[in-house]
Design goal:
The complex is a heterodimer.
Chain A: H1 2-16, E1 40-42, H2 57-61, E2 67-73, E3 85-93, H3 102-106, E4 112-114, E5 129-130, H4 132-135, H5 148-152
Antiparallel strand pairs in A: 1-4, 2-3, 3-5
Chain B: E1 3-8, E2 11-16, H1 21-27, E3 51-57, E4 76-78, E5 84-85, E6 96-98, H2 102-117, H3 133-141, E7 160-161, E8 166-168, H4 178-186, E9 192-195, E10 202-205, H5 217-222, E11 228-230, E12 243-248, E13 257-263, E14 266-272, H6 285-289, E15 304-307, E16 310-313, H7 316-328, E17 335-339, H8 345-358, E18 364-365, H9 379-383, E19 398-403, H10 407-410, H11 413-423, E20 427-432, E21 444-447, H12 453-466, H13 472-477, E22 480-482, H14 484-492, H15 495-502, H16 506-518, E23 521-526, H17 528-531, H18 535-546, E24 556-559, H19 566-572, H20 586-591, E25 599-603, H21 612-620, E26 623-627, E27 640-642, E28 652-655, E29 660-664, H22 677-691, H23 695-703, H24 721-731, H25 740-743, E30 773-774, E31 786-788, E32 801-806, E33 830-832, H26 834-840, E34 847-851, E35 856-863, E36 871-875, E37 891-897
Parallel strand pairs in B: 1-6, 17-18, 17-25, 19-20, 19-23, 20-21, 22-31, 23-24, 25-26, 26-27, 32-36, 33-35
Antiparallel strand pairs in B: 1-2, 3-4, 3-5, 3-6, 7-8, 8-11, 9-10, 12-13, 13-14, 15-16, 15-27, 28-29, 29-30, 32-37, 33-36, 34-35, 34-37
Helix pairs in contact in B: 7-22, 8-22, 8-24, 12-15, 12-16, 12-18
The chains are: A alpha+beta, B alpha/beta.
Chain lengths: 165, 898
């Protein structure tokens, strides 16, 4: 009986001299795993074009019905995205979202990516709805070339079924 | 037709001679994939998707006998020793078809792989994605991968406009020619064709303006890929996001079944809903693109009361009590009610009740009161096509007589349906005073002198007697009673004089009469020009009755009058003569405005827009209530303006030209929770009833009631539209079986119509929500005696030119608001013959001043080559201020160059 008591206190004593595993959040933030699924971002191509073509397949795949996409036609002289169509409205309700990542899987242009931001708290419910302006990355943060098929064609191209990163 | 026995994938079935392999397989429950074949059109075998193995019994060339094998069964030979396209191969006795052999599967995979070599696979941005036959067939029959290099695909510029309504994406097109064939074969608009050759082969528009067809939207439905998409629905929504609500179009008397595709309370598109007795699987462009008015920003949302010449917003209580107070302060004869024929039956019924029971007035009408108003004519109620009429089933043995009508303009779907009867071997006679499109499809085109349709109709009645064409059965039954006037008119108008007046040879009239009398089914369709003279419907009814074409399915009259629910307006009693002492018609209301009539309640009508006399009359009235969706020209003269819910925001029923009552549902929440029209009528009636009990008025009315039998002392206690409908079924004769639940039944176990055309379609909707109920014509009751009457044809006015008003589909009404069709809207113009324009030295588009005894207006000229000298046509479009010019059904005018 006494023996078990000292055994327990011994464990406590041992950890007093070890480096603590907890961190002082929010001053210190632990890095997340590479495949962590946090808040979504809408990506761009290197040249600043939006990858999202407004196909709403993410909304169709979403098990929580958290995504709203309303598409519109690109102005041929000032297109937002390659092809005819872009998302005029793109909204995700972060309270509904279960961060399953099905939207990523469904996306034919790899436009939507669940990134590493996890600090999602709101003072009101309306604040949980992230609009396109909040989701879309800055124009200089684009990556990946528009596939050659889209670049070389002297036309208003249609996006192919899959665009690689 | 005799049946032949065939075996399809081991199932032996009997199918009628002439059936092709694809249809036969469908009857056997075997699906053969198709792209270009469509059951409504002739097969062409362009896509090669329906390749099947067809074996026929071997025939010995010497003896012409079927060769028998050792087992006693016929020896089978593969037809042509290769696969056959199922759609172009008619079945024959003893045929054996394999649709799932390895050889067939290999061919199907090959066809799909080949079709996909030039397909961009841009399904994510394609409007057809989700309801695309190419997607579906590839999933079920296609290969899992392609040997074709993606980078090698041929690319074209993305959508090019094929017209202002339809966009063509040439990359996606598989050149099945369904659209070309639909326009050529069914719509009779030779507007599409093929251009170029080889890899550049493409669909082009041949007409100016491009794709000039009133049925163009249907090509997007039957397009098996996303090549043709509608500019109205472009990128609006993905199809799986849409929620469909069954509805009925009220823009013309066809009553097409539609499906309102909604996303979050917003109207995304209007699609046809299958109903073989009404619209088959089609809908015209007006019905498809003409329903955006309901979602316009400038809809009225609060009641307005005019104070010191300015409209100010008011509460519903204020508006209703003001209306009840003012209307109640006049005697019944001093108030009048006008309700438009586009309102549903429930509203029209409540409106008639409000006036008859609560205000004690018979001054009710559904016409705008213009001099061009058609006289009331309720003959189709007695002599109309019988219960069970289905034009889709008619062909050989059917005679259709179209007289004084331009179906494409008045009720566009009749163009397709009547043309199809002629194509199936029916006899289609088109009698008209001026060129109409249906003439081109007619088996007998009869061009009478303009304005002599009445003489032609009377000549038909005379021909019955002269050629002994009368039906023994009908004459023997003793049901027909002839008025003195009937005998007098027949005696006064000799056959030869009548024929001479029409400018025809007598043989034409006699063969027409004989063809109609000898046919098994006889249908008479008469429209605007014929209804303008009461003598014509009377003569046509007599002709139909004498030849025995009455009181049975597929025989009788079909009237095409303005207004989608004109039939409902007549049945519900929104007409001056429905009960008791006839009241004032709309025309008389305007004439007596300020003297006899003090107050008018106008719902869903805009008489001031076309008729300056009505605008002046409105100013003379003490009190005007206008109930409408928008602040219309008429509403400007109102003392109280009440907004109302649009058709898509409420439920109700419409009755079409063939007296089929059909139910539509609520698709959308009305802005500001606006009430339906009947709710406003009820609110006013409730306030009036509080002021003065009305049992007396109702009782006196019941005595002489013909159509309308008010239920006294029934209160105004309806909570739902179905409560009003219950009242309609109890009080309107013929409607007793048309309850909401009965209207909602579709035939078949799953509501599938007998023609399973939907099977081959990308986007035609199966009807599961009710095909409606046809109200029986009174001649169907064999105990009714039929009083035949005739009257002398209206005298033709004498003048330099005779002006005839003609109907136009794109008439510039409120439905144009927000519609893509507003671009197709032509401004008011006058149509003249080549000779007359040459005499006046005016060209197309030049202005002329048209004067009549009533007034004069200046209009641009259009020239019609087929038109007779001395006749001018005035299309009824908004802005033509017809009322300023017309003196009656035909108007004598003089025209000078402006």
């Amino acid at each position: 009986m006494i023996g078990s008591l000292f055994k327990g206190l011994g464990t406590t004593l041992k950890y007093l001299f070890k480096k603590p595993v907890t961190v002082e959040y929010p001053e210190v933030k632990r890095p997340v795993r590479e495949r962590f699924r946090g808040r979504h971002q809408l990506k761009r191509f290197e040249n600043g074009m939006e990858r999202c073509i407004g196909c709403a397949l993410c909304a169709a795949a979403c098990p929580a019905d958290a995504i709203l996409v309303v598409a519109a036609e690109n102005d041929p002289h000032k297109p937002n995205s390659p092809g005819e169509r872009y998302a005029a409205r793109y909204e995700i309700n972060m309270l509904r979202c279960i961060y399953c990542g099905y939207c990523e899987d469904a996306c034919p242009t790899n436009a939507i990516v669940l990134e590493h931001q996890y600090e999602l708290s709101f003072y009101e419910r309306a604040g949980s709805i992230f609009t396109k302006t909040e989701l879309l990355v800055a124009p200089d943060q684009g990556h990946g070339e528009i596939p050659p098929i889209l670049q070389h064609m002297n036309r208003r191209p249609s996006p192919p079924a899959q665009i690689d990163l | 037709m005799p049946d032949v026995s065939v075996t399809i994938d081991g199932t032996q079935i009997n199918v009628p001679v002439g059936t092709n392999v694809v249809d036969a397989a469908r009857l056997a429950g075997v699906a053969v994939p198709v792209f270009c074949y469509h059951p409504k059109m002739k097969p062409v075998g362009m896509c090669r998707m329906c390749l099947v193995e067809v074996y026929t019994p071997k025939v010995d060339p010497a003896t012409r006998q079927v060769v028998m094998g050792e087992d006693g069964k016929p020896v089978l030979a593969l037809m042509m020793n290769k696969l056959q396209t199922g759609c172009t191969t008619p079945i024959s006795e003893g045929m054996v078809v394999n649709t799932a052999s390895d050889r067939v599967k290999f061919a199907q995979k090959g066809v799909l792989e080949f079709l996909l070599t030039s397909h961009p696979l841009d399904c994510p941005v394609c409007d057809k994605g989700g309801e695309c036959p190419l997607q579906n067939l590839t999933m079920q029959w296609g290969p899992d991968s392609s040997r074709f290099d993606y980078e090698d695909k041929i690319h074209f510029e993305k959508p090019i406009p094929l017209g202002d309504l339809i966009l063509l994406d040439r990359e996606r097109c598989i050149l099945c020619s369904r659209c070309v064939r639909f326009e050529d074969e069914l719509a009779d608009d030779n507007v599409l064709g093929f251009g170029s050759r080889g890899r550049s082969w493409e669909i082009i528009s041949k007409s100016t303006p491009a794709f000039d067809s009133k049925f163009s939207g249907n090509t997007t439905d039957i397009c098996p890929v996303g090549a043709l998409t509608s500019s109205d629905f472009r990128f609006k929504a993905r199809v799986w996001e849409l929620k469909s609500t069954p509805s009925v179009c009220n823009l013309c008397p066809v009553g097409c079944n539609t499906s309102l595709d909604m996303r979050y309370n917003e109207l995304m598109r209007v699609m046809p809903r299958e109903n073989d007795a009404v619209n088959e699987i089609w809908v015209c462009d007006k019905g498809r693109y003409g329903h955006r008015y309901a979602v316009q920003e400038n809809r009225l949302t609060t009641p307005l009361i005019k104070r010191n010449g300015e409209f100010v917003s008011a509460t519903w209580e204020q508006a209703y009590s003001l209306i009840a107070e003012r209307l109640g302060s006049y005697s019944g004869a001093q108030v009048a009610g006008l309700a438009g024929p586009k309102l549903p039956n429930e509203d029209l019924f409540s409106f008639a009740r409000l006036f008859r029971e609560n205000l004690g007035s018979n001054n009710l009408d559904h016409r705008p009161g213009s001099p061009a108003d058609l006289p009331l004519d309720d003959l189709p109620r007695t002599y109309g096509v019988g219960k069970g009429t289905n034009l889709m089933t008619l062909g050989k043995g059917t005679a259709v007589l179209v007289i004084g009508a331009d179906p494409e303009e008045e009720a566009p779907l009749y163009q397709l349906r009547l043309r199809a009867i002629a194509q199936r071997g029916g006899d289609l006679t088109v009698v008209s005073g001026y060129p109409t499109k249906l003439e081109r499809s007619a088996t007998r085109k009869v061009r009478v002198k303009p304005g002599t349709e009445a003489q032609f109709a009377l000549a038909l009645v005379q021909a019955v007697a002269a050629e002994k064409l009368a039906s023994e059965e009908v004459l023997g039954s003793g049901r027909l009673k002839f008025s003195d006037e009937y005998r007098r008119v027949l005696a006064a108008h000799k056959f030869d004089d009548l024929v001479a007046a029409t400018g025809l040879a007598r043989e034409v009239v006699i063969t027409t009469a004989k063809a109609f009398a000898s046919a098994e089914h006889g249908i008479i369709v008469y429209g605007r020009s014929a209804a303008a003279d009461p003598a014509i419907p009377q003569a046509l009814a007599a002709f139909a009755a004498l030849t025995g074409k009455l009181g049975k399915a597929n025989s009788g009259l079909i009237a095409l009058r303005p207004g989608g629910n004109f039939r409902g307006a007549l049945d519900m009693g929104v007409r001056p003569d429905a009960a008791g002492q006839p009241g004032l018609s709309a025309q008389q209301v305007w004439q007596q405005a300020g003297t006899g009539v003090k107050a008018v309640y106008i719902a869903a009508l805009n008489p001031a827009a076309e008729n300056p006399a009505a605008a002046q009359a409105l100013q003379k009235l003490d009190f005007v209530v206008v109930q409408d969706l928008f602040l219309t020209e008429t509403a400007q003269y109102a003392d109280v303006v009440l907004p109302a819910a649009a058709v898509i925001e409420r439920e109700g029923t419409f009755t079409n030209a063939e007296r089929r009552e059909q139910r539509f549902r609520q698709a959308r929440q009305a802005p500001a929770n606006l009430p339906a029209d009947w709710q406003s009528f009820q609110a006013v009636a409730q306030l009036l009833a509080e002021r003065a009990p009305v049992a007396v008025a109702a009782r006196t009315l019941k005595k002489g009631a013909k159509v309308f039998t008010p239920e006294a002392p029934q209160g105004w206690t309806a909570m739902l539209t179905s409560d009003v409908n219950d009242m309609v079924t109890r009080s309107v004769s013929g409607y007793n079986a048309a309850s909401y639940s009965a209207l909602s039944t579709s035939r078949g176990a799953w509501g599938r119509q007998p023609n399973e055309a939907v099977y081959y379609d990308g986007t035609s909707y199966e009807n599961t929500e009710g095909v409606g109920i046809q109200i029986a014509a009174s001649a169907e009751d064999s105990r009714t005696t039929l009083q035949l009457n005739l009257s002398a044809p209206a005298l033709r006015p004498v003048g330099e030119l005779v002006l005839l008003p003609v109907a136009r589909a794109y008439d510039g009404g409120d439905w144009v608001r927000g519609s893509k069709l507003s671009a197709r809207q032509v401004p008011a113009h006058i149509i003249m013959s080549v000779a007359d324009t040459a005499r006046l030295d005016v060209g197309i588009g030049e202005l002329v001043t048209v004067s009549s005894a009533a007034g004069s207006i200046t209009l641009p000229v259009q020239i019609e080559t087929g038109l007779d000298l001395g006749v001018a046509l005035l299309p009824e479009v908004r802005g033509s201020t017809l009322g300023a010019l017309l003196t009656g059904a035909q108007t004598a005018i003089t025209v000078v160059k402006a």
